[in-house]
């Protein structure tokens, strides 16, 4: 027995669809009104198999079970998302255009604010394209699908609006969409994409893209002084209230800010007065300078005044 099989409880009147197969021989069956009941495999029987054994191959009941369920969808566009079974565990995901109108199509998975593109390209009239595969037992964990369609109009005609559709598969509804798929010709779980579609706001999409585009820097960068004092007394009004790590963080932030400004405005060199102290600040500054490609060299400077407490940075 597999997910999607129709079964009947042997010692009762309940009948429904298998929605989950658990270890230990237990399954979950969705009966009428969407209720799900847990039963043992040994307590149910496949409806189609039981009816054939009793009524024979021509049974009207068996025929009703095997007949694909019709799906209602407008015929003006004929766009579908189809899940075609590969076996009892796997499905292939298709975009189907059963219409005379070609589209630019975009299909993606939606994880909250994150998207992953499954397909982006043209979907011609009368064309079906496989875009992904899915594992049936992971149905509860599938993300939502976002489908977007922009009509391709080669001739000057009345504009057809672009539109989008977002679908989140629910186990209680998914198995009710079994139907014979157009173009592919196989039974599939078929979802019409024209129903309750939402027209795409192209201007809104362009605005979103503009927000992602970096805005050119128009503020003029001021050149720093040729010599920057990094003694904490010159940088903070109450240095005695700071821990050693806070002092170092503030000094390095000022160092990097002024170095970046010096590079941006094209200065040839800049000097940082860091003092001698325990040597931690000097060592960290030299470490960072050694990792930059646009620094020609750096060296201790003004030793007569600062000893090893100042570093000259030559910018390439």
Written description of the protein model:
By secondary structure, the protein is an alpha+beta fold. The protein has 3 domains: 61 residues, SH3 type barrels (Roll), CATH 2.30.30; 128 residues, Immunoglobulin-like (Sandwich), CATH 2.60.40.1600; 89 residues, Ribosomal Protein S8, Chain: A, domain 1. Helix content is 22%, strand content 35%. It has 8 helices and 19 strands. The strands form 4 sheets. It has a 5-stranded antiparallel sheet with strand order 4-3-2-1-5. A 5-stranded antiparallel sheet has the order 10-7-6-14-13, with no helix packed on it. It has a 5-stranded antiparallel sheet with strand order 9-8-11-12-15, with no helix packed on it. A hairpin with a 5-residue loop joins strand 1 and strand 2. Helix 1 runs antiparallel to helix 2 and helix 6 packs parallel to helix 7. It is elongated. About 7% of the residues have low confidence.
């Amino acid at each position: 027995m597999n997910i999607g099989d129709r079964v009947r409880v042997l010692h009762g009147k309940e009948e429904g669809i298998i929605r989950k197969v658990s270890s230990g021989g237990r399954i979950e069956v969705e009966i009428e009104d969407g209720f799900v009941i847990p039963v043992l495999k040994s307590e149910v029987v496949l409806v189609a198999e039981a009816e054939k054994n009793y009524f024979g191959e021509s049974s009207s009941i068996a025929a009703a079970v095997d007949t694909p369920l019709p799906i209602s969808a407008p015929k003006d566009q004929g766009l579908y998302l189809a899940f075609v079974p590969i076996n009892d565990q796997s499905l292939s995901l298709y975009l189907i255009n059963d219409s005379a109108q070609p589209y630019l199509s975009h299909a993606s998975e939606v994880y909250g604010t994150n998207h992953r593109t499954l397909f982006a390209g043209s979907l011609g009239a009368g064309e079906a394209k496989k875009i992904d595969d899915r594992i049936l037992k992971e149905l509860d964990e599938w993300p939502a699908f976002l489908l977007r369609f922009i009509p391709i109009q080669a001739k000057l005609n009345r504009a057809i609006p672009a539109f989008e559709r977002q679908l989140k598969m629910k186990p209680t509804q998914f198995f009710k969409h079994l139907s014979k798929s157009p173009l592919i010709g196989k039974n599939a779980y078929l979802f019409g994409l024209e129903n309750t579609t939402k027209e795409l706001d192209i201007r809104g999409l362009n605005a979103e893209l503009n927000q992602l585009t970096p805005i050119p820097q128009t503020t003029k960068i001021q050149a720093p002084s040729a010599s920057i004092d990094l003694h904490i007394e010159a940088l903070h009004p109450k240095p005695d209230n700071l821990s050693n790590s806070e002092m170092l963080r503030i000094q390095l932030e000022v160092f990097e800010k002024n170095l970046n400004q010096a590079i941006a405005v094209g200065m040839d060199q800049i000097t940082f007065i860091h003092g001698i102290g325990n040597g931690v600040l000097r060592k960290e500054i030299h470490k960072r300078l050694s990792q930059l490609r646009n620094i020609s060299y750096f060296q201790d400077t003004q030793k007569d005044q600062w000893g090893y407490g100042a570093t000259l940075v030559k910018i390439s």
